[in-house]
Fold these 4 entries.
Entry 1:
Amino acid sequence: MRRFVVALLLPVVWIGANATSVPGQITPEQVRAAIDRGIAFLKSQQRPDGSWTELRGQAGGVTSLATLALLSAGVAPDDEHLQRALRCLERFSKPEATYATALRTMVFCRANPKQYLAQIDVNVRWLESQQIASGPNKGAWSYGSAQQGSGDNSNSQFALLAL
């Protein structure tokens, strides 16, 4: 019986001896400082034309994502960096890809929905038209047009968030 108890306790003792200590709680000040560092980093990476380095096939997508992150972090829409980003995003008036169009729509809705109502309407109509209408992926979205490829969960999530 003694060997049985030792055999059961040995793994517990080994785990306890090798476990790292749990750090203390993170304070609101630490969270705010981390957010402020993230804001500073994003602003430092912005190009003079208001954009960030883009990925091929998703024109304006990275710029939209960075702009949405700044807005979500509490940067005001009238901030100089956000104004440059918004002017940059205004140039992408023709929707072409699900990710980028959904992200631009979210940015415009968050920054100033009344000012960007016409572009939001164009983007929403395009996203609705791109939803796959039939087949095994009915209701999903793809990377580009509904006629290209099958549905993709990530694209579908972004489209739904925008809508």
Entry 2:
Amino acid sequence: ALMSGDLELAASELAEARDLHHELGSAAGEAHCLERLAEVRIAEGDMHTANALLDQALPLARWSMLSMHLLQRIYGTMITAAADPSRARAIVDRAESTMGLNDACQFCSVMLAVPATIACARSGDLAHARHHLAIAERSAKLWDGTAWEAALTEARAHLAVAGGDGRAALLFDEAA
């Protein structure tokens, strides 16, 4: 429902799933539902509620058995929901300082690396943007044929804008 744009149905289904996971004591499932519910709120333009949901999801994910998958997703969504580029950049730093070596999944790293690339590029930190882009590129190869390819191209476009590269518009078009 979320991917097809039916935000009302997505919110309803995710809220029900969140409640069921909570009743079962499944912290990982609850955290994932909260993160996806935050994505719905972002799509609706309600960043305040999105951030509140992500703040609930983070501690649940941190100590769950699936933390290495969920943390990258949650921090990536937190970056997307940030109020401004400097706040987004601060969340990149927070994610890097919080996550340990065992908190990284090669598949899931794209979920943090793409938003981190964009946040760093928007804040003018091109070195870190390139660093995160390299991580995103390695991870996106594992997701061949998915929307992550478009997200990666969008991240490259943001880096191009920040670096004054005239190909930015072409990259944005390609991503779309």
Entry 3:
Amino acid sequence: MFTRRSCQIVMLAVGLGTITSTLGFAKTHEVSMTAIETDVVIDGSGEKYAAWTFNGQMPGPIVRVTEGDTIKFTLTNPATSKYPHAMDFHAAEIDFLKNYKAINPGETISYTFVAKKPGIFFYHCGAPPMIQHVARGMFGAIIVDPKNAKAWPKAD
């Protein structure tokens, strides 16, 4: 037979177990990207396009995390670049003016954010003129899976 005190202890233990298991899922991901201005071949005849890329890829690399995870992001703009570059993660809820500022060639910027909402979000270079940076290849996706894997159907 449970007493009121034993019920409180069981409830406390269940609550602590839930908190511990929830916290146990969160991970920290170190994500580094380099702004690379390079020519990429765009067709079978060898036609080249003057692209601006993240890590030499167009589109940039896919970042995949789970809701509640922390992302420690670093963007490097090599001294060999001609233009300033930036990173705007649409999955991040952080100070836009502080973290998404353009960095000049030879500079690096780092910031941290928590992926608070599940979904598939765009990221892109936010340096002006932003549309030119996106058109030249500085964009990609960050996938934030829900904490509860059963919240969405299993992906193929």
Entry 4:
Amino acid sequence: MKISDIAKEYEIDAANFVDYLEKVGVKLKFSFAGPVLEDDIQGHVRRYKEYVAQAELEREAIRKKEEEMQSALANMLITSGFNFDGYKITKYSGYISGDDAISIDRGTSGIFSNATNVGESLTKSLVQIRRQAIKELKEAAYALGCNAVIGVDFDYITLEPETANIGGGTTYLPYVFCVTANGNAVIIEKED
């Protein structure tokens, strides 16, 4: 029976069904009208539907886990101090960090070029890279099973890379600005 007829009769996606059959090693015949399945059609369709249902369950579980993680990250407390009023620390899980970096063009000099305003570009980018570093810090704490981070501080690094060029001169590469958020992952509980 043609795959297109099977798909119509059993209300399944023909292309996905063919992909599934190839994945599980079912040999299809090919005719002028397209791929053909000759044996155990009902069995293959039943197993395909079970496969699709299982894949959907797995996608749903992943989605729920992602939602749980996003909720936990949104509610995670962080402080530059070493405690939270109204909470007690029940477990210290260790030092963690989160990093991000951005490169900013130096611009060029000359009649027809525009110099980059490095200060303005850095200011616009700093909020973004600091937020990403905090996000990574929280994800590191979450991976350790923690719900808070204490002793948070930031380290900033500026790199001015340069290299020798073919003519023997120096080529100045874009500035690189890095930020690292550091802290200690902990588990906290509300005090009675």
